[in-house]
Amino acid sequence: MPRQTASVARLSHHSASEIVTIEGAGRGELPRRRSGQALDRVRQLTELLAEIVHPDHAIDRLAYRKALEARASNTVRALASDLACYAAFCRTELGVSLPASESRVVAYLEHLEALGRKPATVSRRLASLATIHGLLGVTSPTLAPVVRDAMRGLRRRMGVRQRQAGALRFGPGIDAALALDGEDGAAEEGQGKRSHRNAFTLTALLAACDIDPSGLRDAALLSLGYDTGLRISELLRVEVVHLTPGETGDGAGVLFVPTSKTDQQGEGAHAWISADTMRRVAAWLEVAEIRSGPIFRRVAVRRAKAWAANRPVRMESLAPNARITRERMYGRPAVPAKVTYTVGDVALTPVAVRTILKRTALRAADLGLVDLYGSALDDAIARLSTHSLRVGLTQDLFANGEDAGPIAQALRWSSTATALRYGRELAPESNATARMLRNVRQ
């Protein structure tokens, strides 16, 4: 049965006269969202490939569909998007679309540059073309020197700097832990608190989360995402069975990551979880009554307004032509406001997580937890993405003096290049030079 509570201590933003009902996982039906029929991207990609390939290289649709099904869903999504872009270009150009010639690929690069596509996007679309040619069993023209030179010229003209997701670093608290002992350390801690208030941090967002079911879920999601540095697809695949208490007895835990972007075969990896995160996750699982399956799920909120009591009306006071209703004759008792929280059965979507991040950040600004206003606030919120927690953890690890190798291993990267790129925008007051010279050159 659904649980009802009017506890002000548990749900502080509800009034004492409000009836709050929490329908745990599997105990209620969520309202259906309006959505079109889901597209089968693998089938769509296979059909598009069959449409633009030359008859001399006709494909076996079943074989190609099976080959595409072996790839990660995000990879298939990118291939479908990139091939659709190339097909649209080919419809305006005469000649064979696939396999492509070197001159056609160069013309395609010029087309993408004219559209204002960023070098990173163009590079991905070239990589997708190379993958498609590999499926066709022919040499990819993207490897030709003329194509490489064309791409090099595009990068030089447009620049290669990518807009990185805004980092959600831990914030106040980590400065004290990393600061030197003594008065200098105390000074650094104060400087850290002031600098962190000029940007969104994990600490600020956790403080902005409410203590209703949605807020408990959001806090658990943010906390676990930071501790483990999981990609959004990995974070949304976390299930109850993947969490285990640690062996140190300090309340920390361990998360088993069954698969990741760099582990498509499913060898698995493990990530450490802080005691604070374990408590937050446990609080969410308890209120949502989740015993198995995905941890982070949709929460639907239904609200009903309160109705004031109506007294019965005496018959002699009614006008001759007045309508007589049961409510007028017998009155109506007061009806308190009602709020019902219903927890779903399936995991959140990446779009939902992005909305949670931006909504919580805006609430943190409204509560005065950050010193951001006007255009600076808009820009900071715009930079937040589902990758912000991973970027923030990476920068905090660099600020703690960790090398790129151990960071790449902890965050499950196949190389150190991405870790170094994330650390490139580390705040100057936290980089290696600042750590070494702060107490030497005063």
Automatic annotation (TrEMBL):
It comes from the Bacteria. The keyword Nucleotide-binding does not apply. The keyword DNA-binding applies. Residues 52-137 form the Core-binding (CB) domain. Keywords: DNA integration, DNA recombination, DNA-binding. Residues 192-436 form the Tyr recombinase domain. This is Tyrosine-type recombinase/integrase.
